[in-house]
Amino acid sequence: EEEKENGGMEAWERAYADERSWEALQEDESGRLRPIDTKTLVHAQYRRRLLAASRIQKGLIRYLYVVIDLSRAASETDFRPSRMVVVAKCVEAFIREFFDQNPLSHIGMVTIKDGVAQRLTELGGSPDSQIKSLFGKLECSGDASLQNALELVHGYLSQIPSYGHREVLILYSALNTCDPGDIMETVQQCKKAKIRCSVIGLSAEIYICNHLCEETGGSYTVALDESHFKELLLEHAPPPPAIAEYATANLIKMGFPQRGAEGVISICSCHKEAKVGGGYTCPRCKARVCELPTECRICGLTLVSSPHLARSYHHLFPVTPFNEVSSMPTKWSQKLSQTCYGCQQSLVTRGGKSDPHVSCPKCNQHFCLDCDIYIHESLHNCPGCESQ
Questions:
Q1: Which residues are the signal sequence here (predicted)?
Q2: Looking at residue 29, what is its pLDDT?
Q3: 148 and 180 in contact (C-beta within 8 Å)?
Q4: Tens digits of per-residue pLDDT, 17-55?
Q5: How many other CB atoms are found less than 10 A from the CB of residue 120?
Q6: Which homologous superfamily does the CATH classification assign to the domain defined by 58-246?
């Protein structure tokens, strides 16, 4: 009965599965153990991301293929319960964050196993359909072939219009690659087609992955644990800096379709079948599509909605990074703001010192660390500046 309760795990496995609680402690000045201040650590990571993303041109219309390694190496259990399960769970969070940050972009998925690369989903703008397809095909077997994956993705991304930023994100578990030909030629083909390739490794650093990222302008990182892997993955959600030689200005024709009336039967151009109600009507050819953003299958017009354009605006004109305000004695803190301008929580501790917080350089209003993250990553407007 005890084995059943613990899932049949050994004693050392149960201790490891307990999230290694000793790592959540640190020693203070007097030698006593206390919990780690995770709030300050999270804010420090956020500040690094914010300061790294300075005012640079970004690729707002992205066409990204996520290549997932489902070879035999993905069944390893160094990530609990396995690499495959951890990757699938983190990819789900990444897809939702990707569409939140890139409403005009498209994403597709490719799997590699048994030495073969297969396209799991086409490039599309629906997170739910992508996630549903991913969890329906989770099986590990055989070896991984990096060359086959790159050639498959190159064939699809080379047809993307010049205004689209072509990207590949490879989640690689294996320590080798079983290729049918010269992979160096494939790397040069991707470089010539202006495809930015990035790799996140789950085992150890591999030379060919590093070479691929250096040649195509991508990034290569290796995850230490599950939380680090998720952090590395989510760093690819915001639009990356546009490479100077690829960043050419283009005018793009877009259509803003109207939503179809409920109860009307029409043939869907996406699924080639009759559907009742809903959907959107292309303003040029009057064809019906199910979801936005997409390209009309009949006339090729890019179809978006006005909220998609509005949500892309903050990447062009981001909120100015706030200045950090250090803790001060009581006589100084009384002159400053006593509460957060956003959530109205007190910024002064019981000892008379002010909590670590930030201030807007334009309106000089003070905000707590949580509001700082919320304003820059979700709201994209400063409440103090807007109220003026």
A1: none
A2: 66
A3: yes
A4: 555 555 566 676 677 776 665 666 666 766 666 665 555
A5: 19
A6: von Willebrand factor, type A domain (3.40.50.410)
- Specify the amino acid at residue 375: I
List the Cα angle 110/123/95 in 5-degree steps: 75
Contact 79, 216 (CB under 8 A): no
Give the tokens for residue 371. Answer: 């509001």
CATH of 338-387, one of 3.40.30.10, 3.30.40.10, 1.25.40.10, 3.40.50.1360: 3.30.40.10
What's the CA gap between 133 and 129, in Å, rounded?
6
Q: What is the pTM of this model?
A: 0.76
Q: Is the pLDDT of residue 75 over 80?
A: yes
DSSP per-residue letters across 365-383? -EE-HHHHHHIIIII-S-H
Residue written as tokens 């959107």? 280
Give percent of the chain with pLDDT exceeding 90: 39
Query: What is the full DSSP assignment across 64-84?
Result: EEEEEE-SGGGG-SSSSS-HH
